Amino acid sequence: MAKRRITKAEKERIRQILDRLDMTYSREYKCYLNHENAWQLLIATMLSAQCTDERVNIVTKDLFKKYQSLEDFAKADLKELEKDIHSTGFYRNKAKNIIACANKIILEYGGEVPRTVEELTSLAGVGRKTANVIRGNIYNEPSIVVDTHVKRISKKLGLTKEEDPEKIEFDLMEVLPKDHWILYNIQIITHGRGICTARNPQCSECFLQDLCKAGGATTAKRQTKTKAKTK
């Protein structure tokens, strides 16, 4: 894959974006999925596919009391586990993958959640997004997590033109400094929930508007319409 050429002006724009994100949302690492250890975060992240973090946290509050170890999940009755996680959606596949994942970690990794992308993605139901959540939050390995917020807002900011999450991940790895790989996801989730929402983005209130490719375009269109009306 050819390395992307980034101009000096673009590097400065990206630096300003990151500075403003840091200033507004801080550089504090925060995981939105409640967990006490690596395997709990792994299972919570698997449950979060096509489901909100809020719903997952409601489900895992009781789930992790009932299943208190990887061994408990490995020995779980499939139908019973399906009922336990039903409200997270896609519960049949999730339950099957969680049981298979727990068994493999116990049998092949001595009960310890692995840390490399290759090892993590070899587990049932674990893709690059889930692998990077574990690497970043548990092992503090610089990792970029591409969720719906990161995908949508990164495209608006002009940091990628891709649709595929893996391609977006590699685009962001090229343009973002490593010390922001984990932070970027945390900050963009907050931004996507509060200001740049999917259904009704508050562009006029956004502190990134003048640096945003989509926000700038929206402003230009509004100004053109306003000028046309006043003529």
Question: What would you say about this model in short?
Answer:
The chain is 60% helix and 0% strand.
Provide a descriptive summary of the structure in words:
The chain is built from 12 helices and no strands. The protein folds into 2 domains: 7-28 and 145-224, Helix-hairpin-Helix base-excision DNA repair enzymes (C-terminal) (Endonuclease Iii, domain 2), CATH 1.10.1670.10; 38-137, Hypothetical protein, domain 2 (Endonuclease III, domain 1, Orthogonal Bundle). The chain is elongated and about 55 Å long. The protein has helices spanning 8-25, 38-47, 53-66, 70-74, 78-84, 91-109, 117-120, 128-137, 148-156, 165-175, 181-194, 213-230. The protein has 231 residues and is mainly α. Helix 2 packs antiparallel against helix 6.
Major sheet details: none
Order of helices and strands: HHHHHHHHHHHH
The CATH class of the largest domain: Mainly Alpha
Instruction: Using the 3D structure, state the CATH architecture of the largest domain.
Output: Orthogonal Bundle
**Percent range for helical residues?**
55-70%
Radius of gyration: 20 Å
Low-confidence runs of at least 5 consecutive residues: 218-231
Task: Work out the number of β strands.
Answer: 0
Structural class, please? mainly alpha
Instruction: Kindly report the name of the CATH homologous superfamily of the largest domain.
Output: Helix-hairpin-Helix base-excision DNA repair enzymes (C-terminal)
Taking all residues together, what is the mean pLDDT? 92
Q: Any idea of the CATH topology of the largest domain?
A: Endonuclease Iii, domain 2
Number of helices, where a helix is a run of at least 4 consecutive DSSP H or I residues: 12
Summed up, the domain count is 2
Distance between the termini: 50 Å
Share in β-strands: under 5%
Q: Can you tell me the overall shape?
A: elongated
